[in-house]
Each structure stands twice: as C-alpha cells, then as structure tokens.
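User: Study the shape:
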Amino acid sequence: MSAGFAGLLALGSYVVGILGFRMMRTPPESLRDYDPRQGSTRTSLVGKVRAAVGRRFGPFVLDLLSPRSRARLNRHLAASGRAPGQTLNDVAATKAADVFTTSLLGVGATLYWVPLLPLLMVYGWFRINLTLRQEAKARQTRIERDLPDFLDVLSVTVQSGMKFRTALRRVEERFDSPVAEEFRTALRQMDVGASRREAFQGVRDRNPSPSMNRFIGALLQAEELGSPLTDAMGAISKDMRKAFGQSVRKRAAEAAPKVSLVATVILMPGAALLLIGGLIIGGNITVPGGG
C-alpha cells in the first residue's frame, strides 16, 4: 500500500468518524423537541438523515423486539416522562438510526481494531435503552423529592374549602415538576371522561415511585371509604420526607467507598513512581540498561 493511498484512507476514516459522532449526538426528527413558537420541528441535515434511516428501518427493528423488550421500553418511556406523541415506534426508529451511526463509526475504527465494529453496533442498539432508563431513574428520584412539598400545599388548599379536584388543578398549575406533570395528565384524562380511579391508577402505573404509589393508594382508599384525605396527606408527606432523607444518607454512604477506590486508583500509581524514583535517586542505584 502506497503512502498516499494510506493517507487518503486515514483521512476518509477520520471524516466518517466525525460524521458518525455528529449523528450520534443528533436524535431523529420524531424525537426532537417541538418548538411551539416556530410551529415546526427544528432539525439539522444530520437529523434529517437519521430520521430517514429511522423511518425506513424502524418497523423492521420493531419486529425484532420481543414482547418483553417492548413492555420494558414502554415502562421506561412512561417513567421517564414520555414526550407528547412519543411512542415505541419512535424508539425503534432511534435504534435503527443509532445502529446506522455506530456502523459509520465502526467503518473507520476497523482500520485500527476490527472487533470495534460489532461492539459499536451493540452500543448503538442498546443506547436508547440506557438513556431511557437513566432518565426514568432521575425523574422518579425527583418525584420522591418533590411529592412531599406538593402534598403539603395540596393539603392546605383543600383545608381552605376547595374541592379536591379544584385544589389539585390549582396546585399543579403552580408547580413545575414531574409531580405536577403527572397530575396534570390525570386531570386531562378526567376532563375527557375518565373516572377518577382510572386516572389516578394510570399515574401509579406510570411511576414506580414508592411515595407516589402510597399516596395514590391512600387517595383511592379515601374515595372508597369516604374518609377525610387531608390528615392522611400530612402523615404521608412526613413519612415521605423521612424516607427520602434515609435514602439520601444511604446513597452517600454507598458513594464513599467508590470515591476512595477512584482516588486510590488515580493516586497510587503516581505515588508509587514518586517513591521508587526517590529511592533510586537517593540511593544512587544504577538501573539495568540505564548506562
């Protein structure tokens, strides 16, 4: 292989790698944020390419998913705060676009290490799964944190004389959090004819948060038995704060060994080299092969 051809091949692989990296950072058109001020979806050229790949191969990818995988993705979509109009078909389109993008990256990477191509394709297949799982976990953590404050304000609003549904609508309009989004969805479902039980069971099904599960259970029980809900909301809010504080302390205790491990891995090699170098210099030791 001549030097010119090798240089051209290396340049081509570099260009393909940069293009693939840009594509990995650009979601397909169907998953981009909708801007109501513009009235359309803002999409770059790279996003249009990924959207075209997703539309073409998304149905094929969806057929490859097992029923268990589809159910798991639907749960992650719901727990992560499913964007308006986002469906399992969009996730399949993203998978197809990610596999295409990582394949482009892998074409350039095979010049250096051939097994990198299948590894990148596997990453492209599971990237959206990992992203949705991480977003779902972060959103449920925020629900655990914000729900006690939401319940306190809701309890005071109900005690002021408002009906529960009116108070719930008033409070969710004042909050900017996933908790308010969930109850806003439930209120909209009731506005179009769903019963209160169905709407709130939907909130519980979408969110695996223990605090949300407990509050919805108390809400449905109070509705069935006709018992006052304000006292129960105060007790639940207090217990939620206590449970959230315990979980924070638990995560902090689990993080300490991880930080110590990282610090040890980073600092120990440098400290060992410094110590050995000092011993060699101070002891006037001749290193074999060092002259």
